[in-house]
Amino acid sequence: MTDFALFAAWWIGLGIASSVGFGTGLHTFVLYLGPHIAKVTMASNACNYVPESLPTRWTFHHFKACPEYTDTPTIAVFSIY
Fold first, then answer.
1. pLDDT tens digits for 23-72?
2. Which of 18, 28, 60, 70 has the fewest beta carbons closer than 10 A?
């Protein structure tokens, strides 16, 4: 029940925040696209490959677990893209 309440509060808050924008699209990037790009990039650097996405309605963990990569990441930007 707590997960559902947090999920609902998160999306209601994002909906309200995105409706306050000035028509520039900046609020959409800051609230939705920017965090998604950051999550994909951080997950890719942690795994040294782009992990499989797991779509879900109830949690914010979007990727399958991968073995921890401790060396310097060598994944290219275009691979992440």
1. 566 667 777 778 878 888 888 888 888 777 766 666 656 777 787 777 77
2. 70
Give the amino acid at 60. F
Considering its fold, how many domains does the chain have in total?
A: 1
- 10 token code pair: 């998160």
CA distances from 72 to 10, 45, 49, 50, 76 (A): 34, 8, 12, 15, 12
Cβ neighbour number for residue 7 with a 10 Å cutoff: 15
Range of the domain at 69: 2-80
∠20-41-66 over CA atoms, to 5°? 125
Distance CA 25, CA 28 (A): 5
What count of residues does the chain have?
81
